[in-house]
Specification:
alpha+beta; globular; five-stranded antiparallel sheet; 51% helix; four-stranded antiparallel sheet; Glycosyltransferase; single chain
Length: 443
């Protein structure tokens, strides 16, 4: 009875909250994009700007950026470029495609000779008439979705525009992704290798997971078997590196003898609940993409470990000691600690030590995929939501859209703590775009 009333309420609502809000969302998106493009450096972006635009920073205020530097680390230039590309798909306005192209050129001109990216790049050599990038030597990072995120955006743009510099950048980036893979299927944090924990087999910050995701995306877009094989080798490494029961999870990083290893001083070796959840999802994705059931085989033991390692309702420690399975914590003293209370306030707030880590969702994802099978699951995923679900989602989004619209100032800026953040542009633009996509589907 209640469900029937609810559906009547949804279906009697104005068409996805009305044309007025739609126009306001479009106007807000255009105004915000206009301002953001006005502060671009050769088409790219820093992470944070002062209100007078005289100071620029990367991920945080302790990372000042030069006037000719742009930030690659999400939510930097690739994230902004992806917003522009999404806006083009939603609106059909070529202005957004031009903005996406500008961001892509900045990334292509900041790409290293070996094919990847660092956190920040200098684009002073990029001029409007530049035809071919002059790339610098240097190490590239796979940490924090930096090289992978840039490459993913460039590949998607490559489906929309046919320009030699873009195709060449994508090919170079994919070549780098394959060359940086170890023979056993793992990836390091940095490549070319630079020593220390940077060379370890790295799951932390989604490194290997993002590599697999992007190379699978490349296989879908370009169809080359070498990309498929590369992704499958990544899956083989996930299986190879799994801990033995009863600790059948995964560590954040492994030394080259496949033992959980130290990274930074506050990152002791241990079995990691967050990494385990992400690896469950990646194994399911590999099963869905290639149909090989072997990728599902390691998951039940991993779930068993997770279920036995809870420290509260939907709560896990990040790290568990190898052997004892005791929760462990790290600090800048380089020692292993056994209670969160021992940790300095700076590390308590600057690192996630306890959380749900998406574990419940990862377990549900596995069970649904296994129950339905790859073909039925993929078909279900591709089905568009019904009208009632779209309307409900639009009504849920409407209040957020209104808040985003009201937060934009007269100059087209979203301001937080007297600073202008790429992150705010990306998050708020995607709220508007999610709403506009629903309206488009309604038609």
């Amino acid at each position: 009875m209640l469900l029937a009333f609810f559906l009547v309420l949804i279906n009697s609502a104005p068409a996805l909250a009305g044309d007025d809000l739609k126009q306001e969302a479009l106007d807000t998106l255009k105004k915000a994009t206009g301002f953001f493009r006005s502060i671009a450096t050769r088409g790219g972006y820093a992470g944070i700007y002062s209100m007078d635009l005289q100071k620029r920073f990367g991920e945080a205020l302790y990372e000042p950026a030069k006037p000719t530097e742009i930030w690659v680390q999400p939510p930097g230039t690739p994230s902004v470029g992806a917003c522009y590309l999404r806006a083009y798909h939603v609106t059909g306005d070529s202005t957004y495609l031009e903005a996406a192209r500008d961001a892509a050129r900045a990334l292509a001109w900041g790409q290293r000779q070996v094919g990847g990216w660092d956190h920040r790049v200098d684009v002073s050599h990029l001029e409007p008439g530049s035809k071919k990038p002059e790339r610098k030597k240097g190490h590239c990072t796979l940490d924090d979705n930096i090289s992978q995120g840039a490459l993913s955006f460039l590949m998607r743009l490559d489906q929309e525009i046919d320009e030699e510099w873009l195709s060449e950048s994508v090919e170079l980036g994919l070549s780098h992704l394959m060359k940086s893979q170890f023979k056993n299927g793992a990836w390091p944090q940095w490549y070319p290798l630079r020593g220390g924990y940077h060379d370890f087999y790295t799951f932390n910050d989604n490194t290997i997971n993002d590599c697999i995701r992007v190379i699978l995306e490349a296989h879908k877009l370009y169809g080359k078997k070498e990309y498929f094989d590369c992704a499958m080798r990544g899956g083989d490494f996930i299986m190879l590196s799994q801990g033995k029961a009863p600790q059948a999870g995964w560590a954040q990083q492994y030394s080259h003898d496949l033992k959980p290893a130290w990274a930074r001083k506050f990152e002791p070796p241990g079995i990691c609940s967050a990494v385990t959840a992400r690896n469950i999802r990646t194994l399911v994705v590999l099963y869905l993409h290639g149909g090989e059931k072997k990728f599902l085989d390691p998951i039940p033991k991993a779930i068993d470990w997770l279920e036995k390692s809870r420290i509260g309702p939907d709560l896990w420690a990040r790290l568990y000691e190898v052997g004892t399975n005791r929760p462990i914590y790290g600090d800048r003293d380089g020692k292993v600690h056994y209670t969160l209370e021992e940790i300095s306030e700076e590390r308590k707030t600057g690192y996630s030590w306890q959380s749900g880590y998406g574990i419940a969702g990862a377990i549900r994802y596995y069970h649904e995929a296994k129950s339905l099978g790859a073909d039925r699951f993929m078909k279900k995923q591709s089905e568009a939501p019904g009208a009632a679900k779209r309307r409900l989602k639009a009504l849920e989004l409407a209040s957020r859209v209104g808040a985003v619209i009201r937060a934009l100032d007269d100059q087209g800026r979203w301001v937080k703590n007297n600073m202008i953040h790429c992150e705010d542009f990306v998050n708020n633009a995607n709220v508007l775009l999610g709403y506009l996509e629903l309206l488009k589907e309604e038609k």
